[in-house]
């Protein structure tokens, strides 16, 4: 069965420090992986995706994520956090096969402190 | 490119009343999703359409919720009758086959 885990409910980092939001997944076939962000009182926004190719994917707002097949992980990273990055982050996975169902993680609340 | 349009933005109704939400996806996006997001939680898929066919409605409470996507474009989601626990943000999203989802601004429903 497909599943996504975001092991941390909350991540706190100081502004200017690097940040990592963790995501691990389980699918039977090849994964399509996604990160979404939800700013306070706003809708969900697509950040980046991994479909195939280079394991390091770059997305919006300076975020990037690394696909690690052996560890079945797709951690979201940013070299230098901004206070404005404070938001809810969701990881999602879909099996590349015929099953079009997108499975969502429970979300990680990122707080960047000035 | 125009985004996903949803209306209304806000709705307050009494329990046992009915309500309908409307969504217009991005032109050309074959896949349309309705999600329910309760405050502080992740989105929960209610129904997924591929063109005008249903791909997944396993989490749709079919005794009170219904959705349709006529002609494979616009979609409506209806709740009848509403319960207090239906208070949430209802998000519509659309996508091409392997792109990320583009979400609308959502409809915030309050059932009193």
Helix and strand arrangement:
The complex is a heterodimer of chains A (114) and B (112).
Chain A: E1 3-5, E2 10-14, E3 19-21, E4 24-26, E5 31-38, E6 44-50, E7 56-58, E8 64-68, E9 73-78, E10 87-95, E11 102-104, E12 108-113
Parallel strand pairs in A: 2-12
Antiparallel strand pairs in A: 1-4, 3-9, 5-6, 5-10, 7-8, 8-9, 10-11, 10-12
Chain B: E1 5-7, E2 10-13, E3 19-24, E4 31-37, E5 44-50, E6 53-56, E7 65-68, E8 75-79, E9 88-95, E10 102-103, E11 107-111
Parallel strand pairs in B: 2-11
Antiparallel strand pairs in B: 1-3, 3-8, 4-5, 4-9, 5-6, 7-8, 9-10, 9-11
Whole-number mean pLDDT of chain A: 92
Largest sheet of chain B: 7 strands, mixed
Order of helices and strands of chain A: EEEEEEEEEEEE
Determine the structural class of chain B based on helices, strands and strand pairing: mainly beta
Fraction of residues of chain A in helices? under 10%
Rg of chain A over CA atoms, rounded to whole Å, is 14 Å
Shape verdict of chain A: globular
Number of helices of chain A: 0
Uncertain ranges of chain B: none
> Count of helical segments of chain B?
0
Strand content of chain B: over 45%
Largest interface: A-B, 18 and 21 residues
Count of DSSP strands of chain A: 12
Describe the structure.
The complex is a heterodimer of chains A (114) and B (112). Chain A is mainly β. Chain A is 0% helix and 54% strand. Chain B is 0% helix and 49% strand. Chain B starts with a strand and ends with a strand. Chain B has 112 residues and is mainly beta. The A-B interface holds A 32, 34, 36, 43-46, 48-49, 51, 90, 100-102, 104-107 and B 31, 33, 41-43, 45, 48, 50, 55-56, 91, 93, 98-106.
Kindly summarize this structure in a few lines.
The complex is a heterodimer of chains A (114) and B (112). Chain A has 114 residues and is an all-beta fold.
């Amino acid at each position: 069965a497909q599943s996504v885990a975001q092991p941390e409910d909350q991540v706190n980092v100081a502004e200017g420090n690097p940040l990592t939001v963790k995501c691990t997944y389980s699918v039977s076939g090849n994964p399509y992986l996604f990160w979404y962000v939800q700013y306070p009182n706003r809708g969900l926004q697509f950040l980046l995706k991994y479909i195939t190719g280079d394991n390091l994917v770059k997305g919006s707002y300076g975020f990037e994520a690394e696909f690690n097949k052996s560890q079945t992980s797709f951690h979201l990273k940013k070299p230098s956090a901004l206070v404005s990055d404070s938001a809810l982050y969701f990881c999602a996975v879909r099996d590349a096969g015929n099953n079009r169902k997108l499975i969502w993680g429970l979300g990680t609340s990122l707080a960047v402190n000035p | 490119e125009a985004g996903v349009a949803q209306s209304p933005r806000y709705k307050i109704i009494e329990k046992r009343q009915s309500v309908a939400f409307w969504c217009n996806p991005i032109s050309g996006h074959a896949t349309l999703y309705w999600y329910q997001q309760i405050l502080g939680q992740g989105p929960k898929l209610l129904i997924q359409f591929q063109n005008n066919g249903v791909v997944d409605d396993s989490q749709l409470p079919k005794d009170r919720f219904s959705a349709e996507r006529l002609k494979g474009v616009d979609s409506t989601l209806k709740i009848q009758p509403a319960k207090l626990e239906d208070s949430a943000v209802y998000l519509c999203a659309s996508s091409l086959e392997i792109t990320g989802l583009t979400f609308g601004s959502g409809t915030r429903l309050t059932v009193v």
